[in-house]
Amino acid sequence: MGQPEGTVKTTTRPAVPGWARKSTLVLVIAALALAVFGTTTQTWLTVHLDPAQLGAAVASQDGLQVQGSKAATTVTALALVALAGGLAASIAGRVARWVITAIILLAAAGIVAAAAVVLADPLAAAQGSIAAATGISGSSVQVDVTVFPVLAVVAGVLLGISALAIVPAGRYWKSRTKYDAAAAGGTAVGGTASAAPADEIDSWDRLSRGDDPT
Known about the structure:
There is one protein chain. The protein is about 60% helix and about 5% strand. It has eleven helices and three strands, in the order αβααβααααβαααα. Helix 6 (about 95-120) runs antiparallel to helix 8 (about 150-165). The protein is elongated and about 70 Å long.
């Protein structure tokens, strides 16, 4: 026997992989963004000043500590942008998630680039702090780099990878807008719209012509 008419076909939603869960992915992005922000509050550079050039009073200090927020000023702002983007992805629609992914990727790339510049030329990154502390710029000093710029690079790379996972993971997330529901494709019954029975259409056609439908 065939399937009775009017039976609604039901579909089973595929199991959501652990990495694709909305709460997990948003939490990872937020944690990585906060990790980057946290590194900027720590010392990135330690500047050892030359007493012959800057005087004994300045040289008596145990080195000039330069925080990441001063060595790479853009990293702090970009970390906050990535954090906001990750939180917005949890409530965004399908199209908006593409935009958010691009924003987080750009923020992650900026974080990696800014931290890499500090690692490549720490003296140039410390010149602003040296001038603010001593009133002298362009001095020949020794600059030691801590581990925090490296951690910022690693967290920035992982942040970019996590952002790329938003788009494929979004396929498992429930639609939150009418547009997303329509874009998901199909209708609730068998994926196709139901058509009126042929005999019912014929009866209405006869009535419209004034014929006796019987």
